[in-house]
């Protein structure tokens, strides 16, 4: 994984606030800054070699996106999600992605189908070896790109925009769970079923498999989150 917070990482092409925001956002969604990790302005400013002002403004923007949370003490941490959050996010995805696959069945191009198939082949190669932190992030990236391409193939840019907002939170949620159990992901058999239904241009089958996939994913994530919470209580 490429680290984004190394010194000299901010070329002065855009405003320092924008650069700091993009660097921190990438670090959060890339797992370099992990869920629950405390963000210290002075440390981040030193790493990015900027003053604390652009860091503070970047954190404010990230807070608006619910990627960081402000503690009562005034500290800031990378957001973590509860089981209730996970259920609600998945319910949003189920509603939106049904629209995605139904329209994709009508509008997807041969080029887009080939891209989806390529992602399935990449997934097969990734999961053949022993799970690692890197392979886990590669699976997360493939999962995101697969679902986003389906949304794009629907021809509905508003749907893509709405899903992008959900995908960011989902990515952080998946990082929170897959760092303990990489098997939470299943981007081979379930994605294959979605692909086959869309390729057959069968909206009924596509709707059924996308709902089944997301419900199965939700169940796996909830189980993992409950296990994490249980282990946390035992440690305490």
UniProtKB/TrEMBL annotation:
Keywords: DNA-binding, Transcription, Transcription regulation. InterPro entries: GntR_C, TF_FadR/GntR_C, Tscrpt_reg_HTH_GntR, WH-like_DNA-bd_sf, WH_DNA-bd_sf. SUPFAM superfamilies: GntR ligand-binding domain-like (SSF48008), Winged helix' DNA-binding domain (SSF46785). GO terms for molecular function: DNA binding; DNA-binding transcription factor activity. It holds the Pfam family FCD. Residues 14-81 form the HTH gntR-type domain. PANTHER family: GLUCONATE OPERON TRANSCRIPTIONAL REPRESSOR (PTHR43537:SF24), TRANSCRIPTIONAL REGULATOR, GNTR FAMILY (PTHR43537). This is GntR family transcriptional regulator. It comes from Aphanothece hegewaldii CCALA 016. The lineage of its organism: Bacteria, Bacillati, Cyanobacteriota, Cyanophyceae, Oscillatoriophycideae.
């Amino acid at each position: 994984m490429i680290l984004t917070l190394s010194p000299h990482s901010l070329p002065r092409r855009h405003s320092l606030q924008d650069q700091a925001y993009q660097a921190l956002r990438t670090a959060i969604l890339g797992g370099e800054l992990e869920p629950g990790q405390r963000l210290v302005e002075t440390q981040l400013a030193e790493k990015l070699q900027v003053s604390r002002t652009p860091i503070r403004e970047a954190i404010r923007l990230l807070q608006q996106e619910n990627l960081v949370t402000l503690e009562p003490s005034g500290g800031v941490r990378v957001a973590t999600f509860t089981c209730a959050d996970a259920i609600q996010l998945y319910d949003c995805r189920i509603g939106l992605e049904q629209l995605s696959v139904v329209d994709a069945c009508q509008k997807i191009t041969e080029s887009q189908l080939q891209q989806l198939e390529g992602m399935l082949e990449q997934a097969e190669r990734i999961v053949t070896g022993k799970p690692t932190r890197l392979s886990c992030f590669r699976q997360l990236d493939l999962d995101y790109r697969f679902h986003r391409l389906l949304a794009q193939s629907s021809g509905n840019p508003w749907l893509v925009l709405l899903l992008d907002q959900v995908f960011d939170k989902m990515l952080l949620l998946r990082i929170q769970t897959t760092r303990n159990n990489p098997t939470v992901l299943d981007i081979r058999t379930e994605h294959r079923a979605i692909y086959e239904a869309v390729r057959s241009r069968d909206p009924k089958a596509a709707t059924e498999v996308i709902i089944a996939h997301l419900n199965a994913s939700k169940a796996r994530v909830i189980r993992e989150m409950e296990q994490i919470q249980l282990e946390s209580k035992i440690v305490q």
